[in-house]
Amino acid sequence: MKAITLYFSATYTTKCVVEAIAKNLSNEVTAYDITNDSSTDEVAIPSDELLIVGVPVYAGRVPAMAVERLRRFRGNNTPAVVVAVYGNRHYDDAVLELHDIMTECGFRTVAAGAFIAQHSIFPKVGASRPDAEDFADIKAFAERVSELLKGDFGDIQIPGNRPYKVPGGIPIWPTASRKCSGCGACARLCPTGAISLESPKGVDKAKCIKCGRCIVVCPTKARRFYGIKYSLAAARFNSAFAARRVNETWFAKTR
Ligand SMILES: Cc1cc2nc3c(=O)[nH]c(=O)nc-3n(C[C@H](O)[C@H](O)[C@H](O)COP(=O)(O)O)c2cc1C
Ligand code: SF4
Ligand code: SF4
Predict the structure, then answer these.
(1) What are the extents of the domains in the chain?
(2) Residue range 1-17: mean pLDDT, rounded
(3) How many CA atoms within 13 Å lie on the side-chain side of 1?
(4) Helix (H/G/I), strand (E/B), else coil: 70
(5) Over the stretch 120-177, which tens digit does the pLDDT of each residue have?
(6) Can you give the pTM of this predicted structure?
(7) Is the Cβ atom of 220 under 6 angstroms away from ligand 3?
(8) Distance (Å) from CA 84 to ligand 1 centroid
(9) Is the terminal CB of the chain with fewer CB neighbours within 10 Å at N or C?
(10) Distance, CA 184 to ligand 3 centroid (Å)?
(11) Could you tell me which CATH number the domain at 3-163+243-251 has?
């Protein structure tokens, strides 16, 4: 079965999880990376293909920017694997929300997963994940999806609440130190256009979604979150969410 991967992935961990699932399910994969793609052209995915869609969890939700970009993909009762990747705190309502969005777009969720990766704001939380244990879980998940797709499947129960959690804001923004060489990589790759090519050390606070991409793409490691508010939040997160969480998966009922 041909697989279509579709993901929003600012610091590349969601991309990595989605690609690992796809690799275990199909030899023929077409990828749509919507992190930096604001196209509004509709993409129709037929019922004999499989969509594997992934988003990171932002404040317990699907990132608002990803919601807009996902809605141009249209299924025709097309099976979908829906995946939220989160930084070892919790996924809250994000998997349910993603399932709801894709259902509205014409997809049928065959399986869902909440997989853990390094936290993109507080990298000591979930550090170095996904790791070998996570990839073993991903392989087992894909094998079960493959079995389910051989027959007919029905509804799926996914945890979460409707209405979804109301996200809270975090008053931190990344900026660059004197190590900045002015290369412009952060400005070119920022999904929201919050960094100007002319003065890339700064950030447009109104546009920045704190996704962390400018930090991971900076070749001189000049860019990061600075300040006392960030340090205090990091200390709290590092201690509150140090314990390793396990990946969770859900499957549609067989008919
Ligand atoms: C703005 C923002 C909010 C986040 N909120 C959560 C959260 O609610 N729960 C959690 O466990 N991780 C949270 N994270 C961490 C990301 O979900 C996690 O690092 C994910 O792997 C990032 O995916 P990416 O590498 O594809 O960007 C948040 C990260 C960002 C940038
Ligand atoms: S400036 Fe903000 S939105 Fe842009 S890449 Fe950096 S963290 Fe993401
Ligand atoms: S990627 Fe780093 S070095 Fe390049 S312009 Fe941005 S902050 Fe400066």
Answers:
(1) 3-163+243-251, 174-226
(2) 98
(3) 23
(4) helix
(5) 999 999 999 999 999 999 999 999 999 999 999 999 999 999 999 999 888 999 999 9
(6) 0.98
(7) yes
(8) 10
(9) C
(10) 5
(11) 3.40.50.360
